[in-house]
Specification:
Radius of gyration: 29 Å
Distance between the termini: 86 Å
Number of strands: 3
Order of helices and strands: HHEEE
Largest sheet: 3 strands, antiparallel
Structural class: mainly alpha
Strand content: 5-15%
Strand order of the largest sheet: 1-2-3
């Protein structure tokens, strides 16, 4: 008898209505609109920090090169002298395990020796790849 009663009245379906789903989607959209820009701003700061760290790492390799050879690589020798001998007496490299990295925006670091601000200048021009700028476009320098 219970079986017939169940069949006659039907079984209530469990689930969400279209309105409930739309309300949840609107709430998620609002949260993404509020939180998203804050997260994207932190990505730029993270890349600036990564560039500073890489410049310090390359600077340590340049110092090791100078200790071994008595000089920093010239501008024409460039940073590749840290991984491949350019014929400098006393070279005991490679000084970087994985080669010279590009900056976090995929561009090569700019190297000059002698530099305008010290024995060498090592610069990343930021996201725009041009001197100057603010925020993510700000230059990251070895002398700052």
């Amino acid at each position: 008898m219970d079986i017939k009663k169940h069949q006659r009245y039907g079984k209530k379906e469990a689930g969400f209505t279209l309105i409930e789903l739309l309300v949840v989607m609107v709430i998620l959209g609002l949260l993404a609109a509020i939180v998203g820009p804050n997260l994207f701003g932190k990505v730029g700061k993270g890349k600036q920090s990564a560039a500073k760290t890489q410049i310090e790492m390359i600077g340590q390799a340049l110092d090791s090169y100078r200790l071994d050879t008595g000089k920093y690589p010239s501008t024409s020798e460039g940073l590749n002298a840290l991984n491949a001998s350019s014929g400098a007496a006393g070279w005991d490299g490679p000084y970087l395990k994985k080669g010279v990295p590009n900056d976090p925006w995929g561009k090569p670091y700019q190297y000059q020796s002698p530099g305008s601000h010290g024995d060498y200048d090592l610069v990343s021009y930021g996201a725009d790849g041009a001197p100057g700028g603010d925020g993510e476009n700000k230059d990251v320098n070895s002398w700052e």
